[in-house]
Amino acid sequence: MDFSVILRTVGILSLISAALSAIISLSEKVFNNYGTCELDINGGRKVLKVEGGRSLLSTLASEKIYIPSACGGKATCGLCKVQVLEGAGPILPTEEPYLSQQEREKHMRLSCQIKVKGNMKLGIPEELFNIQEFVCEVESLTDMTYDIKRVRMKIPEGQQISFKAGQFMQFYSKPYGKVKEEAFRAYSISSKASEHDHVELLIRLVPGGLVTGYVHTALKEGDKVRLSGPYGDFYLRGNCEELIMIAGGSGLAPIRSLIYDVIEKGLPHKIRFFFGANSRRDLYYVEEFAQIEKDYPQFSFIPCLAFPKPEDEWTGNTGFVTVALDRDVDSGAGKEAYLCGSPGMLDASIKVLKSKGFTDETIFYDKF
Amino acid sequence: MPQISPFVIFFASIITSNMVLSNFLGMCSYLSVSGEYKTATGLGMAVTMVLTLTTVINWAVYHYIIVPLEIEYLQYIIFIMVIAAVVQILEMLMDRYMPDLHAKLGIFLPLITVNCAIFGVTLFTVIRSYGFLQTLLFGIGSGLGWWLAINMLAAIREKMAKNKLPAGMSGTAVSFIITGIMAMAFMGFSGIFTIQ
Fold it and tell me: Which of A:102-141 have CB within 8 Å of B?
């Protein structure tokens, strides 16, 4: 074939594609340009000026408001629901399967499907404002017990973490060893809510666990790790006189944060913290809690060992945490219970608490 | 240019030369989106709109760009690129100026880019060397014909939804049979007028 024909063909095709792309990007500039739009969130609590033309989800994300979403804006997970009081237009066919009648009445919409085309009035749960992504440096890794590590991370310069004691973070692992994928798991924050430049997690090694394996075998001090949060509705209500805290294993994390929260805020609540473990080697933070007991008479720490070993020379409570609970707590009146631990322990403890007169309204828990 | 009245072409493309029922074009979306009458109506409407637009634009592209440059061998690629571009721009325009319509049809527009009925109609206008008016009415008519066909199928499928069918016959299989019967019924019109 003649060489000039090939050249001519390529030339013409390129010209035509270039012309078409030019037309498309020009019309995108003209027709998809909605100018500056005003997003009024929670009745004036926050007013954002944003460029229109993109989905509400990504517009909010670029304003550092992270709406939970799992599918990345494809309308398949239905998580990114946001209340849109004004400016969203009719419900789209892609949204219909995810919105119940109740949600429609509340003007809930999938934020990944609606486009910002003008001023909008939104309702976003306050706690979502605080959700951020952090790339933190691991400042220290401490062995708390033979299978629990404390990971202390520094929040990067220019960012601050503010959370309610009891909430959790999502921790992202990197590929390591034979594990080729990135994974994330949720871990409760164990540090004080008043500390805004550091965050601590307690991570127990789960046999075969992707992320816990990463933390226990691959992670080193000085490494950078990715976190997002805070999330969760496990936090102090405090409409009572006494707080009963129950934890096992790394479930101590949110409880420690809660205890410090009560003490630092000078709240009047009495606190009894029942901590369940198998033997002495599973106990940690014991000296710290003993010190708090000394300094603040309102607090008492009750460790219970289910299977103390002879060499432990244990003189404290023996048996499951439920035994001590049954013995020490007389009634549910004027009390709230906060539980964090394995499902088995939680279910058994909740059963005991309910027999004492606690109700679903006074029992709060974080199961893992 | 063949001496057929544009109006004959218009009616013929709806009835006797129906894109689905006589040419079996645009079958993928015809079969997969015909489960519900309401959605089928949306898709039919969108196809009609896109068909009309792209057929006319491709007609102009053919006569004013492809023929003068003697690049007929590139027509397939160029037609497809033009269709894709038109659909994109149409989506932006609808989103901006007809948000209600966009809410209804928006999700179908990307589907239509790869609907072979659209491409087929463009090629027919070239092969049959239609003039402008003939092309315009052929485009509109083919769109309406496709719309009619998918609505008929959707209506029948909705009626049949509660019927018990043998396992191997449900879904696509029975849709093909329904389409075949409809096509035979439409053959009865073929004496009225022909355009090919």
Answer: 115, 117
What is the CATH number for A92?
3.10.20.30
Residues A179 and A254 in one domain: no
Task: Note the ipTM here.
Answer: 0.79
Of B156, B33, B149, which is closest to residue A93 (Cα–Cα)? Answer: B33
Q: Are residues A41 and A123 in the same domain?
A: yes
Q: How many domains does chain B have?
A: 1
Q: What CATH number did the domain enclosing A172 receive?
A: 2.40.30.10
Range of the domain at A112: 36-128
Q: Is A86 on the interface with B (CB under 8 A)?
A: no
pLDDT tens-digit series, residues A149-177: 999 999 999 888 989 999 989 888 888 88
- Residue B195 falls within a domain, yes or no? no
HSE, CB side, 13 Å, CA atoms: give it for residue A163: 31
pTM above 0.90, yes or no: no
A287, with CB counted inside 10 A (0-12, 13-18, 19+), is: exposed
Residue ranges with strand state E in A155-258: 168-173, 183-188, 198-204, 224-231, 242-248
* Chain A environment of B77 (Cβ under 8 Å): 13
